[in-house]
């Protein structure tokens, strides 16, 4: 019976879309990792709580099948600011890249500050007499 559960989860992982804009925080990637860790032995994995496993699969399948999106459709495809989904993706992608560039550790920042040689600093002016 666990073999069929394993195959169902594998099929769900194949169908689940990947979002290239959310590298490192993508739900599809997280789901694949969790299925791999839960079914370490593949089809031979023994499941301690089969009912909970089936319930989890059904919940994920409903989300993947857009059941709730069809049941509760959105009035508009924009936020309260009027920004569309595409514009949000562009803004988020740009700001995430900028944050990655700016993100430096304390050690790296200190090394950059203190590693400047005396030639890099402008000479001080001598006081005029």
Any overview of this molecule?
This protein is mostly helical and 129 residues long. It has two domains: 1-73, no CATH class; 77-113. It has helices at residues 2-15, 27-38, 50-64, 67-71, 85-102, 106-114. The longest helix has 18 residues, at 85-102. It starts with a helix and ends in a 15-residue tail after the last helix.
Spell out the key features of this protein.
129 residues; mainly alpha; 2 domains; 6 helices; Ubiquinol-cytochrome-c reductase complex assembly factor 2
SSE blueprint:
Layout: H1 2-15, H2 27-38, H3 50-64, H4 67-71, H5 85-102, H6 106-114
Describe the structure concisely.
57% of the residues lie in helices and 0% in strands.
Percent range for β-strand residues: under 5%
- SS elements, strand count: 0
Structural class: mainly alpha
- Distance N to C terminus: 94 Å
Mean pLDDT: 79
Summed up, the domain count is 2
Unreliable residue stretches: none
Percent helix among the residues? 55-70%
Shape: flat
Helical run tally: 6
Major sheet attributes: none
Order of helices and strands: HHHHHH
Radius of gyration: 26 Å
């Amino acid at each position: 019976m666990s073999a069929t559960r394993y195959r169902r989860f594998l099929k769900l992982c194949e169908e689940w879309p990947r979002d290239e804009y959310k590298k490192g925080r993508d739900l599809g990637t997280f789901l694949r990792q969790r299925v791999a860790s839960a079914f370490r032995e593949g089809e031979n994995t023994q499941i301690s709580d089969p009912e909970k496993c089936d319930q989890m699969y059904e919940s994920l399948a409903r989300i993947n099948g857009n059941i709730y999106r069809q049941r509760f459709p959105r009035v508009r495809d924009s936020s309260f600011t009027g920004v569309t989904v595409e514009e949000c993706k562009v803004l988020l992608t740009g700001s995430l890249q900028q944050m990655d560039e700016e993100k430096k550790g304390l050690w790296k920042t200190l090394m950059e500050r203190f590693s400047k040689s005396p030639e890099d600093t402008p000479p001080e002016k001598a006081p005029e007499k």
